[in-house]
Amino acid sequence: MLKQPEVIGIASGKGGVGKTSISVNLARQMAQNGKRVFLFDGDMGLANAQISLGVKAKENISHVILGQKNINDIIVEVSPRFSLVPGASGVQQMAALNNIEMAGIVNVFSEIKAEFDFLIIDLAAGISPSVLTLLDACHRRVIVVADEPSSIADAYGLIKVICQRSTRTDILMIENRFKRHVTDNTPNLFNLINQVCIKFLDRSIKNLGAISEDEFFSLALKDNKALIDYAPTSNAVKDIQSIIDEIIALGPIQGMNGGLEFFIDRK
Ligand SMILES: Nc1ncnc2c1ncn2[C@@H]1O[C@H](COP(=O)(O)OP(=O)(O)O)[C@@H](O)[C@H]1O
Ligand SMILES: [Mg+2]
């Protein structure tokens, strides 16, 4: 029987806060650490993870959904231990999949023949039913937040909706674009959001840490490279490594309360 990989969904309320940057680099760095990692570009409709990696895939998840390809045939090996399941970009049907179609996507991942340890999913922003269906099926749900009012408000909105959908307690947070100051070097956005969740939702969230504002993100993107390949000694790479250490320290995945789950029927 094949091992059940741990599935980490990367979501945010607002777009442009760094989900793709984090997903790509988290996955690439985990592979560097010796883990076998798959990255799924799950931003249905506007997938762009492959651009960040300099990959030009001919086929993507839309071909699998349309029954033209098997999922094993669209997987692209990017570097040792690191593979990409490409997403569809600019395909209108893909941007408007219903819950049943999204459940079909979750189930099709069980057909992957390779052994691997982690599946990272780069999700679309917001609280559309398709995002929520994918996120519900993940073992770990990570919300990316930047320290600006609209990102905070939208992150809270997403957390609220997730809490309404299930009693699972595993909501994790990453603060992105953290600006280190000489006087105040400690990120406190987590505490702020966690307090609001405790007060109004009666639920707490867990902190995975912060990623610094780092110009290497956009420079690496222009060069179609992952950060570790472009600027291995950058602050952001160090931050991503400490987030990976936090994820590993979370220990085994908890019960999912039944429902749709990635790899549940993997053979
Ligand atoms: N920590 C960071 N420091 C500086 N720029 C960043 C950082 N994280 C992301 N960016 C930049 O922000 C933009 C949006 O990031 P992206 O990952 O595409 O967001 P999303 O996937 O959430 O829409 C990109 O140009 C990216 O280079
Ligand atoms: Mg994105």
| C-alpha end-to-end distance | 5 Å
* Overall mean confidence score, pLDDT: 92
Q: What is the annotated CATH architecture?
A: 3-Layer(aba) Sandwich
Q: What spatial order of strands do you see in the largest sheet? A: 3-4-2-5-1-6-7-8
Low-confidence stretches: none
Rg over CA atoms, rounded to whole Å, is: 17 Å
Here the CATH topology equals Rossmann fold
CATH class: Alpha Beta
Report the helical percentage: 25-40%
Beta-strand residue percentage: 15-25%
The class by helix and strand makeup works out as alpha/beta
CATH superfamily: P-loop containing nucleotide triphosphate hydrolases
What report would you give on this structure?
The protein is of the alpha/beta class. It has one domain (6-249): Rossmann fold (3-Layer(aba) Sandwich). The chain is built from twelve helices and eight strands. Helix 1 (19-32) crosses helix 12, helix 6 (99-108) runs parallel beside helix 7 and helix 8 packs across helix 9 (189-201). The longest helix is centred in the middle third of the chain and has 17 residues, at 149-165. The protein is globular, with a radius of gyration of 17 Å. Magnesium ion (MG) is lined by residues 19-20, 43, 48, 122.
